[in-house]
Amino acid sequence: MKEITGLYVILAAIFFVNLINMTLFNNEWNGIVMWLNTGLFIVGTAYFISSRNFIKKN
Q1: Which alpha helices (H) appear in the chain, and where do they start and end?
Q2: Count of C-beta atoms within a 10 Å radius of residue 17
Q3: Nearest-angstrom CA–CA distance, 28 and 17
């Protein structure tokens, strides 16, 4: 269950970054937001792969 929670937190962070960009910055920081979302996606993918490998070993 901890893996699902971690992935959910990363997904919520992606949506939160988009929300902040749309509401506070009027979509002026789209490039920075895309980089942040790409980084969060890579972190989520690495987290998923590492947790899947940990579960297979146990």
Answers
A1: 2-23, 30-57
A2: 18
A3: 13
